[in-house]
Amino acid sequence: MIMPKMSRNVAIEHNVEFINPPHITLENGVFIERNCYLDAAKGTIVIQHHVTLKDNIRITCHESTGTITLEPNVIVDRGVDIKAHGGQIQISSKVYLGPYVCIAGPGNIVIGEHCMIASHSGIYGNNHIFSDVDRPISVQGTTNRGIVLEDDCWLGTGVKVLDGVRIGRGSVIGAGAVVTQDIPPFSIAVGVPAKVIGQRAQVAEESVQQILV
User: N or C: which end of the chain has fewer CB within 10 A?
Assistant: First the structure.
């Protein structure tokens, strides 16, 4: 059996599947729980040191130009799905991805350090073009502008971030929000579509607890 390129002290539980393991790198102290699936048949996956992958995670590169990098001390909770369709996905150090988060897109996606992304959130680095009513949406192509979450952002449960968005450093996005445009640094944003309701330093703690999960 061919194994990925591994450093020391890598721990892998049972029923973990690697596709094209020479294109997968596992650095020192990586821990992969059971039933995970890492597919680098087209692309490259790099899991840097002391990353933890909980059970039932899927990490997939669908195009030869696709790369997925998880930087040191990232924690990926159960059921997360990360797909690079030709773009680059970078998850920076000390990020937490909650259960069943989905990150996908041909567009590049960067998640900054210390970000916390709660369960069932979605980050999608593409959007379908649908302006021509005489053709099926499926053949009109996509935008692939990409997404950036700057350092120290917190996304509440069920947040959706759409293509072309940049969320500024230290921002907080309320549960269930749909982010369709840029968010300035240190903002609090809620709603569908998400709108900024204040700055972190100006909102009382009791008000924050009412809008965030």
Answer: N
